[in-house]
Amino acid sequence: MLSYRHSFHAGNHADVLKHVVQSLIIESFKVKEKPFLYLDTHSGAGRYQLSGAHAERTGEYQEGIARIWQRDDIPEALSAYIEVVKALNPHGSLRYYPGSPLIARRLLREHDELNLSELHSSDYPLLRTEFSRDKRARVLREDGFQQLKSKLPPRSRRGFVLIDPSYELKSDYQNVVKGIQEGYKRFATGTYALWYPVVLRQQIKRLVKDLEATGIRNILQIELGVRPDSDQRGMTASGMIVINPPWKLAQQMKAVLPWLHQVLVPEGTGHVSVKWVVPE
């Protein structure tokens, strides 16, 4: 059932958007000294070898992180994210890309916690090995959606939840809404960031309507498109839906998205968008 491997897509334009948003949220949490929990429901392998067979077969990173990481005009809002990429590639060639767990590990402080879940039989051992010496981290081979029930609220009463399923099952579109409802019931003050792919626009419109119907407020939608919407096969855009976003996030993304779009999509197709689905 679990056939999706993120190693084919690591470092693409969708990863760049997701990890810019993730790093900005983490940095905002660090403004306060009090610890917080980072909960990642679909963690993947942790790191990805861009010279490996999977990444080389698609080459998606060439139109993603490869276009950005060594530029000399990188906006300040991207600095934490780019520093993680550079730390993983200290010799100046782009060999590895960090998944969301490694970005969190690098940016979190000693007194913060990580809770990571992965079900894939190949990716889970890689993730467990990656974090075997990190005392802050719990790595579980469990359904990530169940973590939204069992691990919330955190002891610190501060938490950031990243929800990033593969969407290889159509039911994932419903499961993310149910999962957010379950988490929000237990931890209404947490920040929840949901990544989504735009393959069929109608699926995303339905997802947004379903989230609106939950009655949850303070929902921000951020989107980066690289091609016009299409009913043909393939992802044309991706986005992040953030519940209880840090107060600066909308402003930060409005400032940085045009630059990202210009660099990632030099031909100028696609779009950028930052809008409130439900205001506070």
Work out the count of structural domains.
Answer: 1
Helix content: 25-40%
Report strand order across the widest sheet: 5-4-1-6-7-9-8-10
Provide mean pLDDT, rounded.
93
**Topology pattern, helix = H, strand = E:** HEEHHEHEHEHEHEHEEHE
Main beta sheet, described? 8 strands, mixed
Contiguous helical run count: 9
List keywords for this structure.
280 residues; Rossmann fold; 9 helices; single chain; 19% strand; alpha/beta; eight-stranded mixed sheet; Ribosomal RNA large subunit methyltransferase J; RlmJ
Task: State the gist of this model.
Helices cover 36% and strands 19% of the residues.
If you had to describe this structure to a student in words, what would you say it looks like?
With 280 residues, this protein is an alpha/beta fold. The protein is built from nine helices and ten strands. Helix 5 links the parallel strand 4 and strand 5. The model has no long low-confidence stretch (mean pLDDT 93).
